[in-house]
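Revision sheet: structure tokens.
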Amino acid sequence: MSTVLVVDDHKPTRQLIAALLEPRGHYVIQANDGEEALAHIDECVPALVISDILMPRMDGYEFVRRLRSDTRTANVEVLFYTAYYREHEARRLALDLGVVGLLHKPCDPEHLLRTIDLALAANSRPSVATDQERVDREHLRLLTDKLSEQAERLQRANARLSALTELNLQIASERDSTVLLDKVCRGARELLGARYAVIAAREMPEGENVDLYVDGFDDALTRRLSPASAAFSQLGGMTSDRKSLRLNGQECESGTLGLPNEHPKVRSLLAAPIVSLGATYGWICATDKVDADRFDAEDERLLTILGAQLGRAHENGRLYRELERHAVQLRAEIVERERNEKRIERLNSVLAVLGGINALAARVRTRAELFREVCRVAVEQGKFKLAWIGSPDEDNAVHAMSWAGKTSEIARVMHIPLNDPIARESVVGRAFVERRIAFCKDVSDPSAPVLYRDTLLSHGLRSVAVLPLVVDDETQACLVLYGDAVGQFDETERPLLSELADDLSFALRHVRAEERLDYIAYFDELTGLANRTLFIERATQTVKAAVLTDIRLAVLLVDIDRFKTVNDTFGRRWGDRLLNEFANRLASAVGDTRL
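Predicted:
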């Protein structure tokens, strides 16, 4: 059996040849490159050398030339086993170096064994005279061509890597599905060097509507392309199987493939499904390779990866949009809930005041007490920052009569003359004049009809409501409530505020009726002087006091002569005026009208 030296920087190739030869009794020596192979030859001269051409440190040509320069190995048979594709130049240079044969990787094992057997069976040939200068020149040219090819390949790879990196950045950062698919369509065409690119995608995996994205078409044709015409036929079968599709060297009508009918005839096609882990959204397709007549396996691998990335990004974008919609809806619900909570809080404040006033109506007896207690309840139970009640004086100017709150000093300076046009248009003036509730949502608004704006703002008061207290179709007073939040009073509270105003007006009417009854019980309604009941009560008290203090007491009885004649002659009205005038003069003369 023979010794065979296998020189290749690709370890699996060396192991494959050894696995084929060793069972047949050959002794196989393995070397990673030419320098290592020469070291082995110094120890043992092989019968056959099987060498790659392109290797680091020392290529196959240089190795064979060094082999031929040594008299011990000048006649050793050499077989090139390489993937270098410039066959004509490689074979010619190999023959010049006395190489017995050249095989291409990968090679059928049987053909490889037959070639090795023929090389081993050949007789050792004499040294071949070669034109060393021409061999060096050819060697240099082959190396230069190979370096140029490698540089071109690296340049193309770098261009693809840049395009792929850009696509990955867009896929990772773009949230808008429409913008993303449009960018990827353009990027895929540039990445694969295709004339046209088409993407057909659905929003949902089970959706019926198909959105179409194209690149490479002129504007007129793009406007004619219809998503509805992108029926899933051959491409549809590809998406169902979740496998890529590559067609080369055949001209096909676009409609039969599933492309839009307006798409030009296809000479070469590469398509991949747009898929996530669990769903299929459509396909991405590139047609008509620009710099070649076909798409290769590397193109298919890239487009398949791109389709999978796009599918996950499309699904993530859909999920992100759904999450964003839910988030917006949730934020709206939270805002609405907070608004409702504030509204309920405001309504509860009014209800608390309403309940307090209803309790007051049963126990207060005077107007002053009613007003004082209402202001207290509004601040303590209703949580309003300031409350005051005012009524017009003889000059028709509203002044505060009662108030409550930490900023009650504001109420003391309130002076709202209803005869003044500006004051009449203020929120308090309107409530008095129009006899209906008026409020201001934002005191800081320059257009808001609010008096003492700067004073209110300096004390943190931001909104105001005025409730007119109407008795017998006349505004007797008004309740003014202040809040520290903008919008604390609005139309939603108007019905409850109206009920509060009505209840407060009823309480005021009740107090007035009580005061009227008390007045009539002790005073003459015409003259305003004490009546018989009060006279007897006070006379009794005065007599008792005179007895205890030993003071003299006199009672003077006064009558009006011919008073009946006045009534009969001039009428009851003039008689009442006479009595009233007489009472006023008598009171003025006496000075003390307690009796």
